[in-house]
Amino acid sequence: MTSLPTHAQTVIIGGGSIGCNTAYHLTKLGMSDVVVLERNQLTSGTTWHAAGLIVAGLLKTEAECEIYTHGRDLYASLEQETGVPTGFRDVGYLQIANNAERVHEMRRLAPFMRRHGINIHEVSPQESADLFPIGDLSDVMAGFYIPEDGRANPVDLTMSLAKGARMGGAKIFEGVTVCEIIASNGTATGVRTADGQTITAENVVICGGMWSRQLGAKAGINLPLQAAEHYYLITENVPGLSRDLPVLEDPSTYTYYREEVGGLMLGLFEPGAAPWKLDGIPEDFSFGEIEPDWDRVGAHLEKAYSRVPSTLDIGVRKLFCGPESFTPDLAPLVGETPELRKCFVACGMNSLGILNGAGTGNVLAHWIVDGHPPIDVTGINVNRFTRHEATRAFRRDRGPELLGKLFGQHYHNEGFETARDLKRSVLHDRLAASGAYFGEGHGWEMPDWFAPSVEQAKIETYSWHRQNWFDWHAEEHRAAREDVIIMDMSAMSKFQVEGPDALALMSRLSCNDVDVEAGRLIYTAWVNEQGGFEADLTVTRLADDRFMVVVGENSHGHTLMRMKRHISEAEVVVITDLTPAITQINIHGPKARQLMEKVTSADMSNEAFAFMTCQDIDVGYWMVKAFRVTFVGELGWELQVPSYAAVQIYDLLKEAGKEFGLRDAGMQTLNSLRLEKAYRDFGLDVDNTDNPIEAGLGFAVKLDKPGGFIGRDALAAIKEKGVPSTRMLQFLLQDPEPLLYGNELIYLDGQEVGYMQVGGYGHTLGGAVGIGFVELDRPLTAEIVRTGNWQLEVAGERHLATASLRPLFDPKMERIKC
């Protein structure tokens, strides 16, 4: 039995790429008392059979770029530090596009990636063929090449990281299985091994790869990930094949290609993949392989060979099948778990554990040491999932879709097709009958847009240009501006917060002053100690000791975790998640008051029911909570309806609204309406690295409120600097044809100064509209915004744009407050 220390500052469970990377980066931050426990040998899980690709792919967020570039740069220099070879070689990376939509997608993202340090540039079909002479690239329309990318040896690289961690003081033990995470009062305090030894620790980190889900479950931790079969084929030696052949990625064949010891490796990410061991990964599975299913992958291999037909007559050295773990949304699970304090996790790398291991390890190390992450983590935070995504049935059904979705061609509005119809509003059938096309948002079925008939409620062809539903969506948008719309917003997360210390909790979290009279709504941001966003939401005071917190569905888990973590030990606060019990029906538009007056006896006048207030009103037979608030920039109310009454109230509103031109509206219209008003949305436009001052939300920050709030001093320091050099602006393209989705670069007087966070089409404004941060080397004044020559780059072409600090639509809020 290996003798282990009885205590460590941090214990890391798992000795693969992620565990060794996390240990290495912790020691770089000065934490030397680190213990890594590996159940077998380092790399014995999935690391040993990884392809070792160090390639960027198509990256859509600043965080993804930072994680990738950190790893690439580290791997290129690690051998010099440790003396242990990593096998890193910058052979280059070529992505090819054989259709116009793929070319357009890559032209949209390439400038964004270059802005963040990735040297990707377009090459011609002939240049692509010259770079990859072994392939048949006759159908290629364009290539996109990164010369600095390449490959590494996964085992050597991990051993080099382990050496670096040991050099920093970390201790690594092999042959030690952790069977239990020990906890007390909601905090992880150590681990227990299979041979009965206990190590107490200030931090426990789960880096157990595909075993993480079942280990976490023992401690009540929700880690939805599932192993799936992953194949690659290696040919016999190919005459004349260069060791410096670039890595080729082809989404049309769902395959990557690279040289392997004189042969060619064909790595599959095929649609219709096979989940592996749904009931649990065997504890003794080490350096293991899965028996290949030739019948299932045969057709995929045939397609893969179509890109390199010259190798068809060359023998097969190895068809390898091994497991890789995948998450429901193809993003990693990283951060402190909501179930246990001081228990951190980094797993679910979606077959990119070598590529993203260093960047992820760096993020998690800073999170542990500094108490907060150094980058935006809204897309990878482990607290984004609910427990249903970890069920056997969900993993079984979603699993086959994941590999192909990861590697195939992508579109801005393309969602998952499997494991659907889970969180459905009670209005779902009514909405479907009205022609709703449903998208998925964090498990919720949400109407994206409405077709004239049920039969037409489908996407005919995905595109980066106008799709078949564009004009129907435009009609919804116009109805909101000219008549009235009804929206099912049941997916919004709704929490009742009550108790003698509810006010103290809400005040401590909120930048705005929530100590108001009952019936008042307050829009506020929640920020961390550095002033970075943790949420933007509404807080409604229902009584002296009771509040309603409403936040977007994408922030459900994060908001709940933040509230729970900030209840002091001596405080009494009860938080109730009312989301499943309440159906939220929104009524908005200039005729909203006329509609509401037909269905209620309440006085809905501006004098009796002011903006940003809440009242209990009757609607038909029922009493509901009506909130006069808007996220679309029009007069209206959000009705919180008991779910048992929702169908009846929806029917009543639809019937009463006929004379006012009432239309159902979906999420596309919500987005276009709110972007015309430049409303912010946490997780989409702003994240934990942004602050309310620079985001233009300073009006909702009360620096002088009694008792202050978390992050008050940080925001005060930002405010004291005067006009910031970084500000969020709204943009409107002057040409009505191009579309905006986000990531488009912003130019001021010919100089690149930022990028768009999100975009949509402003049907009222007459062009694509969006919001983005601009960063200058001087204060970004209103004069610069007004007089500057602004352009946005869309797929390689620059278009003139109008920029504004104030909403371009109804800047005085006259329509909202009427």
From TrEMBL:
Residues 11-367 form the FAD dependent oxidoreductase domain. Keywords: Oxidoreductase. Residues 727-810 form the Aminomethyltransferase C-terminal domain. The keyword Oxidoreductase applies. Residues 370-425 form the FAD dependent oxidoreductase central domain. Pfam families: DAO (PF01266), FAO_M (PF16350), GCV_T (PF01571), GCV_T_C (PF08669). Residues 427-705 form the GCVT N-terminal domain. Belongs to the GcvT family. This is FAD-dependent oxidoreductase. It comes from Parasedimentitalea psychrophila.
